[in-house]
Specification:
54% helix, rod-shaped, 738 residues, alpha+beta, 6-stranded antiparallel β-sheet, Beta-Lactamase, 5-stranded antiparallel β-sheet, 17% strand, 5 domains, 22 helices
């Protein structure tokens, strides 16, 4: 409302201040009615006292003073918002005096104005007293001032009607005011519940509102139902100290009170039943108890109990039920929020909430620990600089796609120059209540998992070597055996040659001494014949050659084993794939040589940036699987062909076999962990699953296959020569031709 300026505006302000100062209770309907009747009462002297003009001066003066005193007394009571019960008699005597002064003429109007105004105050007992006073006024007029019954009786009944109408008006306006007060209490409670941040605050608001529902409310309790027990978790008002935390059996409540535990139900008990409930709940004996269910998700989890020391004028069940419903909803939301907070605070995954532009609004403790940065420093900063620039694009592409987001491997850190942490990140956009969008960034530290995976891969590699150990031992044993035989032959030959050399020395000595040369020559010939010198001279070079060949074969096997079994590191390095394939074939030779011939066609490959140990494992698994497939075909000796070639920035490895082929019904399961076509106990189903992990996840490559049942299968591995971190990671299964 706009207030005009100048004198007019000042007058309006002054009038508003005056009204605010002198008027009372105008914020309620009953107060407004009282103010209206007071206005009539204050206007009465202006036209009601003219009836005293014909009276004796002294009587008229007394009547005027009395009339003004009565009006002043009534205004004073209006200001106090109450009157003593005895004032009916005092006021009635004054009204009777004023009426008598004009011989019950025009001033009798004061009686009706007075009765109408006074009937707006007090209870029924005071209204009965007022009726008696009106009877006395009319009786006094009839007996003392000769008022005719035909005049007195209509006046009497008019006064009684005014009293009754005003009383009913007062009761109706009071009921409306009490209803408005309860609505205001519920509205205030709703605002308080919304503002509550803890369950204790919400329960305090609920109990305060419950006690404000009616002046008769003396105590309020909040109870939870846990199995067969009732537990008092909050109390206010006239309750003993033993009520707090009191636990009792649900069955001790009367059946009428237990009916309140149904969602939507409400029980109002009085008299003996109320006394029984009060005894169970350790409350003073009340006149009435209202029990309303507190329910969430269709189940009542507690009760709101309001005890009243006298019967209320209005039905409170609806208001108490509404309060219980609002409180239950808030308590459930706070409980859910508390549980969610516990989950977020104790989650091992880093959780970051950011605006759509990336401005961080919240981080959980796991994020602080993972980023090695306190929340005070993170909140308000931008999310995307925390992510490795080579991974941001992949994350945003996942978010912008229309498919369900999936975890993406990436690297994060909290500060510049800090070490990057390997994580699997999930980024989702969520809509806020105001229509804006926020980013939920979830990251799981996979550094330890990567370490364990590295150890597992090394263990699986050693397991593969262990499975091949018998064959490798046989491969080494064969050359070692003929190396040993040749060594023993060379030992014997050396002894024989030493004997022959000794004979020649004797011959030389005899010649020098002019001794018996003929006899010495015969001895030399005898030794040469005995040791078969021609055989020795012919076989020794062969034995030496075979020994060197055997040693070379053993050295080759050992060198291949060393290259194959090298644990490697987490850092990729450039490696010769062709050399790695040759070493792997040597290691697997005993597993293959009785089943198939191995053909190689190794193209001119550049050095490939890779984990060499992983590639050794991939080739070994594919070659051994090929040998097993040929053995299962039971068609005699087969062929395994291993070839390599460069192709569009990739190094391609193909392993083809002439085995059984892959049936179409199992083609999509071939790379699943624990899936195997071998007999129980002969295969774990981890070989090809590991191959896919090493190729796709570790190197950003692809593996697929083509197969014809009864003809064979070709596995094709494609490894990027360089720039693996920038290539998409995926694994594709090829079509199976029958």
């Amino acid at each position: 409302m706009l207030i005009p300026g100048g004198a007019e505006g000042a007058a309006m302000v002054a009038g508003a201040l005056w009204a605010q100062r002198w008027l009372r209770g105008t914020d309620t309907m009953r107060g407004q009615v009282r103010t209206l009747f007071l206005g009539v009462l204050l206007l009465w002297p202006a036209f009601g006292l003219w009836g005293l003009l014909g009276s004796r001066p002294e009587l008229a003066a007394l009547a005027v003073v009395t009339a003004l005193a009565v009006v002043g007394w009534l205004y004073a009571g209006y200001r106090r918002q109450r009157f003593p019960a005895w004032s009916w008699i005092f006021e009635g005597a004054g009204v009777c005096l004023v009426a008598a002064a004009s011989e019950y003429g025009p001033t009798i109007g004061l009686c009706f104005v007075w009765v109408s105004f006074r009937a707006l105050y007090g209870g029924l007992r005071e209204k009965i007293l007022g009726t008696a006073v009106v009877c006395g006024i009319m009786a006094a007029g009839a007996l003392m001032f000769d008022v005719r019954p035909g005049v007195a009786i209509p006046l009497f009944f008019t006064a009684l009607i005014s009293l009754a109408v005003s009383h009913v008006l007062a009761m109706g306006s009071s009921a409306r005011d009490r209803s408005a007060d309860r609505e205001g209490t519920l509205a205030s409670a709703g605002a308080g519940l919304v503002a509550s941040t803890t369950r204790a605050e919400a329960m305090d608001v609920t109990l305060g509102a419950a006690l404000s529902m009616d002046r008769a409310a003396s105590a309020a309790l909040i109870m939870t139902v846990t199995g067969p027990s009732l537990h008092v978790i909050a109390a206010a008002g006239d309750v003993g100290p033993e009520a707090y935390g009191w636990v009792t059996e649900l069955t001790r409540l009367p059946e009428e009170a237990r009916a309140a535990l149904r969602p939507g139900g409400c029980a109002v008990v009085c008299d003996q039943t109320a006394a029984e409930v009060a005894e169970v709940l350790r409350l003073p004996p009340p006149a009435m108890i209202v029990l309303a269910p507190m329910a969430a998700h269709g189940d009542a989890f507690g009760l709101l109990v309001v005890a009243l020391d006298r019967l209320p004028t209005d039905d409170l069940s609806a208001a108490v039920t509404t309060l219980a419903d609002e409180s239950a909803l808030t308590l459930d939301q706070l409980l859910s929020r508390s549980r969610l907070s516990i989950v977020v605070e104790h989650s091992a995954d880093a959780l970051i909430l950011a605006s759509e532009s990336g401005l961080i609004r919240f981080v959980n403790p796991a994020a602080e620990m993972m980023l090695a940065c306190p929340s005070e420093e993170l909140v308000g900063s931008n999310l995307w600089p925390l992510v490795h620039e080579g991974d941001v694009t992949a994350l945003r592409e996942v978010v912008s796609s229309f498919v369900r987001p999936t975890p993406v491997p990436c690297r994060i850190r909290g500060r510049e120059h800090a070490e990057w942490t390997d994580v699997e990140a999930l980024v989702e956009y969520v809509s806020e209540h105001d229509g804006s969008r926020s980013i939920v960034f979830t990251a799981r530290d996979v550094s330890e998992r990567h370490r364990l995976e590295l150890e597992l891969r090394h263990a699986q590699k050693l397991e593969s070597v262990g499975r091949l150990a018998a064959g490798i031992a046989h491969e080494i044993n064969t050359p070692i055996q003929f190396v040993g035989d040749n060594a023993r032959f060379l030992e014997t030959a050396f002894t024989d040659l030493d004997r022959l050399l000794a004979a020649y020395r004797e011959l030389v000595s005899a010649a020098q001494a002019n001794g018996d040369i003929e006899t010495t020559l015969r001895d030399v010939d005898a030794v040469a014949t005995e040791i078969d010198i021609e055989f020795v001279m012919e076989e020794v070079p062969t034995a030496i050659s075979q020994t060197l060949e055997g040693i070379s074969r053993v050295a080759n096997i050992v060198r291949a084993m060393k290259a194959f079994g090298h644990p490697g590191t987490e850092e990729k390095s450039r490696a010769d794939l062709n050399e790695a394939i040759k070493n792997t074939i040597v290691v697997a030779n005993n597993e293959i040589k009785y089943i198939a011939d191995v053909e190689t066609d190794l193209g001119d490959l550049p050095l490939v940036h890779c984990h060499l140990g992983d590639i050794n494992q991939v080739v070994l698994n594919l070659v051994v699987n090929a040998a097993h497939a040929i053995g299962a075909a039971d068609r005699g000796r087969g062929t395994i062909r291993v070839s390599t070639r460069p192709e569009d920035g990739f190094a391609v490895i193909e392993v083809a076999d002439s085995g059984t082929g892959v049936p179409a019904e199992i083609a999509d399961k071939l790379f699943d962990p624990f899936f195997t076509t071998k007999e129980v106990g002969t295969g774990t189903g981890q070989g090809l699953a590991l191959v896919r992990t090493l190729v796709a996840d570790r190197h950003g490559g692809t593996i697929d296959f083509t197969s014809t049942v009864g003809v064979g299968t070709v596995f094709t591995v494609r490894l990027p020569v360089a720039g693996l971190e920038e290539l998409p990671m995926n694994t594709e299964l090829a079509e199976v031709s029958l």
